[in-house]
Design brief:
Elements lengths: L1 E3 L1 E3 L2 E3 L4 E6 L2 E10 L3 H19 L3 H17 L1 H12 L3 H22 L5 E4 L6 E8 L2 E5 L7 H12 L3 E5 L5 H13 L7 E3 L4 H10 L3 E7 L2 H13 L5 E5 L4 E5 L5 H13 L9 E7 H16 L19 H17 L2 E4 L3 E2 L7 E2 L2 E4 L16 E7 L2 H9 L6 E5 L3 H10 L4 E4 L19 E2 L9 H4 E8 L2
Parallel strand pairs: 1-5, 8-9, 8-11, 9-10, 11-12, 13-14, 13-20, 14-19, 18-19, 20-21
Antiparallel strand pairs: 2-3, 4-5, 6-7, 7-23, 12-22, 15-18, 16-17
Helix pairs in contact: 1-7, 2-4, 2-6, 3-4, 3-6, 4-5, 9-10
Length: about 475
């Protein structure tokens, strides 16, 4: 059995209370035993990161490149093995798990290159004889708090830029899925990182996360998780002395608009993928399907037929399309919203049944509601499960208005063959990411990720835009 330990100042810490990491596809299967970190361990990790920062922040671009590229190579070489670990602990299908690991490897390769592309500016002053240099520098110790739904990709897209730009790191992964982050940190540790540069503290948010938020030597916090916790992170960072820089990626209630002129097959595939794959446990999932009246009935019938053919089973079993919900708590939340939708008067057109399989697990049949109005709770609140609501509208103008009528603004999509409507939607959808005739839940690793309104706060993640969060700008004047 795997033992998921903490890494502090270059040493693996194995002493302490442990918690089982349970496979949601088969609750009899314990993936590993994770140490439960303490506040004192979090403090020690911050101290180690602080001590390592001066040397690491001045390390050569070549050294940083070599370490991140070596890690990328190992991640990609082991993607099948690591993908199986991910799927066992989180519940997404094996192809999705392997794909997520590959994405993490690609992210590290990209940011290895960014180590060599750190550019500045040299300007002439408005005053004669003075030179100006504008450069970027690392912030210091960065605390990373990551969620359970992407247990290697999200840690990857936070750790990689943090290290590339000269920061030192303390990461607290979701205690529900510690194994994938532990494996990632182990790879980086063996790739040549100096001690203290990267530290892992597995544990409760109320203890380890709180310690990072409250520690005066943590310069910045990057958080991905729930809206409620994100607000607490923001308040804590603002109240701390000195104030911490912070970056938040939170919820979504993402719309997929389907117009009368859409290719029906394309629209159905976009909806099925966006709403139900990864068991709907993506902040970019399309939980609101906004469909114009001319295609509504055909779309609902075709989508119900499509999802009726999806295989819901053990995540690592060949042929599985959708794995289990991640744990009992999330399953209870999904079932609660199914009951709320019925109480509100929506029609459960398909699914929503608790399923049994060969082994005990948290299996839920994808659910499709129709006759949903935009003010129902199931159409406004994030469910974070395989539950989608179809909202019938008269025309494009109404569809756009309802798509934007939400406190969130992460991702949005439209299915149409009209260049006019596609162009208008890209311009006027109030979301950080917009897709046309594509699933709305997937983005490339080299472009910015993030939203607006209640979904995100602070600079974007991923791509070259990550430098906006993980660096600070210095303006230096010289009189030769």
């Amino acid at each position: 059995m795997l033992m998921f330990n903490n890494l502090i100042d270059g040493e693996w810490i194995s002493d302490g209370v442990r918690s089982p990491n349970v496979n949601p596809s088969d609750t009899n299967d314990v993936v590993g035993q994770a140490i439960r970190g303490t506040r004192s361990q979090a403090d020690a990790a911050v101290a180690a990161a602080k001590a390592a920062f001066p040397a690491w922040s001045r390390a050569t671009p070549q050294l940083r490149y070599d370490i991140l590229k070596k890690a990328s190579d190992e991640i990609l070489a082991r993607k099948d093995e690591l993908g199986r670990l991910l799927s066992r602990e989180e519940g997404k299908t094996l192809p999705e798990g392997i794909g997520e690991v590959a994405r993490a490897g690609q992210i590290f390769a990209f940011f290895a290159g960014e180590c060599l592309r750190m550019a500045g500016e040299k300007l002439a002053s408005v005053r004669p004889g003075i030179d100006i240099e504008i450069t970027r520098e690392g912030l210091g110790v960065v605390g990373l708090i990551t969620p359970w739904n992407f247990p290697i990709a999200i840690p990857g897209w936070k750790i990689a830029p943090a290290l590339a730009y000269g920061n030192t790191v303390v990461i607290k992964p979701a205690d529900l899925v510690p194994g994938s982050t532990w494996a990632l940190v182990d790879i980086l540790h063996r790739s040549g990182l100096p001690k203290g540069v990267l530290n892992l503290v597995i544990g409760r948010g109320s203890e380890v996360g709180a310690a990072l938020l409250e520690h005066p030597d943590v310069a910045a916090i990057s958080f991905t998780g729930s809206v409620a916790t994100g607000h607490k992170v923001a308040a804590s960072c603002v109240a701390s002395r000195p104030m911490k820089k912070f970056q938040l990626e939170m919820g979504g209630k993402n719309p997929l608009v389907v117009l009368d002129d859409a290719d029906l097959k394309v629209a159905v595939e976009c909806a099925a993928n966006s709403a139900f794959f990864s068991t709907g446990q993506r902040c970019t999932a399309a939980s609101r399907l906004i469909v114009t009246k001319g295609i509504h009935d055909k779309f609902v019938a075709a989508l119900a037929e499509r999802i009726s053919g999806l295989k819901i089973d053990d995540a690592v079993k060949a042929g599985t399309d959708i794995g289990p919900v991640v744990d009992q708590s999330q399953l209870d939340q999904d079932l609660k919203y199914l009951a709320i939708g019925k109480e509100e008067g929506a029609k459960l057109a398909f699914g929503g049944e608790r399923l049994k399989r060969d082994a005990p697990g948290f299996y839920l049949q994808p659910a499709l509601f129709t006759e949903v109005t935009y003010n129902m709770r199931i159409a406004r609140e994030e469910i974070f499960g395989p539950v989608a609501s179809v909202i019938r509208v008269n025309d494009y103008a109404e569809a756009l208005a309802i798509a934007n009528d939400t406190e969130f603004g992460l991702s949005a999509g439209i299915c149409t063959t009209s260049l006019k409507y596609a162009s208008d939607f890209k311009r006027n959808a109030e979301a950080g990411m917009v897709m046309v005739n594509l699933p709305i839940a997937g983005v490339d690793y080299h472009v910015p990720f993030g939203g607006r309104k209640g979904s995100s706060f602070g600079p974007r993640e991923q791509g070259k835009y990550a430098a906006e969060f993980y660096t600070t700008i210095k303006t230096a004047y010289t009189m030769p």
